[in-house]
Amino acid sequence: MKFPEDLIIYDTTLRDGEQTPGVCFSLNDKLEIARKLDQFKIHQIEAGFPIVSQRERESVKAIANEGLDADIIALTRTKPEDIDAAIDCDVDGIITFVGTSDIHLDHKMHITRQDAINLCETAVDYAKDHGLYVAFSAEDATRTDIDFLKRIYGKAEECGADRVHIADTTGAITPQGIDYLVRELVKDLNVMLALHCHNDFGLAVINSITGILAGARGISTTVNGIGERAGNASLEELIMALRILYGKDYGFKTKYIKELSDIVSKASGLPIPYNKPVVGNNVFRHESGIHVDAVIEEPLCYEPYVPELVGQKRQLVLGKHSGCRAVRAKLNECELDVSDEELIE
Ligand code: MN
Question: Is the pLDDT of residue 333 over 90?
Fold first, then answer.
């Protein structure tokens, strides 16, 4: 398996994450999340969609002027006024998008394929002329005719786009499908290819990893996997799977993961499920006698990695499956010394 050395993670918690129904981050929430993402050493932060409102522009601008190491990018349609709004926010770059599937062209944009190519050209040219880092995103790319997709990405590359995005807008692709699609596209393209995967079938993380192995070099994530509908590829699941299962350490400060997750959960009002991989409360909790007995001696018997790696803590809890060793360990925590008979009782 071949992983790129220069993988870019661009986190969209503040944009797609905020598009979760019912979520509205305050300016302070957004700044706190952006600072923590920066401490985590995220490469790029998609800070928002400036054309949406004055308030959105203020928060994107505040993040862009926070002096973070991460590059700050903003979402725009292919309209020059959207790009101007992003420029006014002092961002480093933009993601400019247009729907490319027939269903989007016919029922949302009401334009032809050629019109979409023209919009791509205008937007990328305009943004490059203004000195921005430009990603061109084909919305609903995974339900788009592949020859047309090659044409529109080819146009973006010709206009000087810094990368092109496959947006799996409805989470519609399989790992085998993304493997095929990415391999086909990188044959013809020199420009960097990135993925924005949705989790409608629970495949966002594995689709992202499969895409990386097929030749993608950028991946979009959100903290806790929040986002439209079933959400996006979860930052913490992706990074930990890469690090632990695939042995690829990209240098992220994973000890901040739990803190980051808690901040986003609180700000979004979306609780973290107990069994959520990496950040759920039960992920490093043990109850059954056999497990606790083994974990006291060697945690890796029943843990894939130690909790401190992601800022979590191991917990031994008592319940109907507890054995003597767990009860004694718990009593010891409370500084209670009991005889063996008392322990059994
Ligand atoms: Mn999305």
Answer: no
